[in-house]
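=== RUN LOG ===
request id: a7f3
mode: sequence -> structure
chains: 1
length: 275
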Amino acid sequence: MSRLKSVRRGAVRVAGVVLMGAFAATAMTGTAGAIINGKDSTERYPFMASIPLSVPSAGNIKGVCGASLVHPRWVVTAAHCVDQDTGAVLDGTVRVGSERRTSGGTVRNIERVVRHPGYEVAPGMRPNRNDIALIRLDRPVTQRPIRIADRAGAPGTPTRLLGFGTTVEGAGPAEWKFAERLQQLDTRRGAESECAPGFADRTRLCTVSRKPGAMACSGDSGGPQVQRGKWGRWELIGVTSGPGDEDVPCANGPGLYTNATAYAGWIQKTISTNR
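=== RESULT ===
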């Protein structure tokens, strides 16, 4: 059974799967969860996937991590979501293409997990390095994968976050309320300087909400940040990784996203060599 590590820095380095995981009230790594002050999804996102998990140390509370379908048999998520040194345990399945967290879409078993070889959990409240992983499904799905953008847009580019993470911030898992309906939040690509020093760089995107008091949170980890492509279709640019500064409340923002475009070569190579 695979395990997840969720990120949410603050009093808890969450093992989560909402923005970054289902924050466990234990010393875990990872960051966001469900989207705070987002809204119900307004369109279909066939590439959206969710990875259910539980946290034994928190009374077996049920959590989730997000993911994006990038190939009929592969989804990309955050490495901390599948970190085996955490208190959150994956239930072994992935749900693809549903606007509901616990029903609909296509459910597949997890056949293989490949973490980026350079993944490292940062000490304290610093961001994780190479926080990206791939999950191979036991069988292909019919939903259409999302294309990884050639490059993330320049700072100021409109983007959108998707997730099933908690919609209510709280001191611990008992106070979290995970979304059953997929949530979305319109954001923009931020400049590196809009996140704390040393947080954003070529491999980590600083993300700023276009709405006050709103950002991804516990349980959103691993989920997508998307931008409009050349033909108006959504393209993947980011993977929810954690907060963009050392402030605790998710809604205070900004958010930090693994730059999927920087890992496109690794993703393609991993998929082609693990058929």
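=== NOTES ===
The helical segments are 264-273.
The two ends are 21 Å apart (CA to CA).
=== END ===
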